[in-house]
Amino acid sequence: MKQSSHRLDFTSRGKGLLEVTQPIAEWAAAQGVETGLLTVFCRHTSASLLIQENAAPDVRTDLEAFFSRLVPEDFAYRHDDEGPDDMPAHIRTALTQTQLSIPLFDGHLALGTWQGIYLFEHRARAHRRTLALHLMGE
Amino acid sequence: MKQSSHRLDFTSRGKGLLEVTQPIAEWAAAQGVETGLLTVFCRHTSASLLIQENAAPDVRTDLEAFFSRLVPEDFAYRHDDEGPDDMPAHIRTALTQTQLSIPLFDGHLALGTWQGIYLFEHRARAHRRTLALHLMGE
Amino acid sequence: MKQSSHRLDFTSRGKGLLEVTQPIAEWAAAQGVETGLLTVFCRHTSASLLIQENAAPDVRTDLEAFFSRLVPEDFAYRHDDEGPDDMPAHIRTALTQTQLSIPLFDGHLALGTWQGIYLFEHRARAHRRTLALHLMGE
After folding, report:
1. Which of the residues B102, B111, B135 would you substitute to probe the C interface, choosing the one with the greatest number of C C-beta atoms within 10 Å?
2. Do A1 and B5 touch (CB under 8 A)?
3. Do residues B109 and B7 make contact, with C-beta atoms less than 8 angstroms apart?
4. What domains sit in chain A, N to C, each tagged with a CATH number?
5. Does A136 sit within 8 Å of C112, measured CB to CB?
6. Minimal Cα distance from A104: which residue of B?
7. How far apart are CA B85 and CA C52, in angstroms?
8. Is this model's pTM higher than 0.95 or not?
9. Those residues with Cβ within 8 angstroms of residue A72's Cβ, 6 or more apart along the chain or in another chain
């Protein structure tokens, strides 16, 4: 049994879903583990993680639109000194995931056919985001 | 330290919560691990996982009703070619969990007394759903 | 490779976020693991876990207020025999996390600078809450 750890940096493009499946899957596959558990951890409180459909781009557009409606910017939040998109970003993070663990079977992530891993940026402007990766297995 | 992996298939009965605690707990117990970590991963983007109360059935009815109200079908989603329940299913999945990890203590899942593991089906019709299981421990 | 397990008890103060980062981080650091994976599991269905901003207290106030609005108590839930705050507590739990796994790098949790671990109490009154901890690594 062995383990590996890594950090991956991404630059988001403002609010919305950025696919990160490929660099994560490539790093995992390169560790020489047949069976194991990969954990992806987002080190931020205004960006999060989602497993979502990787086929129709409209799904990502609708997801972003839904969260924008559910958590409006034009509300009298107490925490408003970092801009109108900051408190909604924290709430959107709370409603989604900060961490995902995905089993590795036969050397590959056990993702379903239509599943991709997404970094969900909740701030209006582009941000540099870091994911911490951890893999354990053999 | 050793690990085991498995796939469990279920047929959902349309929208709502399907309890899957027993087959998961039985598989975990059969692996001969005293202390460890069990990961359950749902390989779909229109069904998800929840830990919820296993006593009152009304809790499941109210949960399903809440998510139906929160994510209405009668909305002008861009992604609508797979039926009115498809985009809401992706959103409901985003709002709940695709993966759960549960510690194993003394050979048993460390679930609380009132906790059950549920597959949350978000499509209107019954679907075949696969959970990937991974257990690590000794 | 080794593993450790532990239980931590907390008394919440009614609805809202209670920071639990320090006792969790201290226990993890005391296990003598350099690289590994810590899992925190909340053994309840009316309290949950969140990674959130650990700086501005207003963020916690706004989060609690958002969830109170999103999941109102004055609704005709079928499950109402444990008080008006019980069914909303189950729904708020479903919308947040029951489990968090955090990688350990260089002997420390790989949390971002502004990230804290919070127990999110969803019942109106104070409750005794138990978190199950599991650490694996070396």
Report:
1. B102
2. no
3. no
4. 2-137 (2.60.120.460)
5. no
6. B134
7. 32
8. yes
9. A88
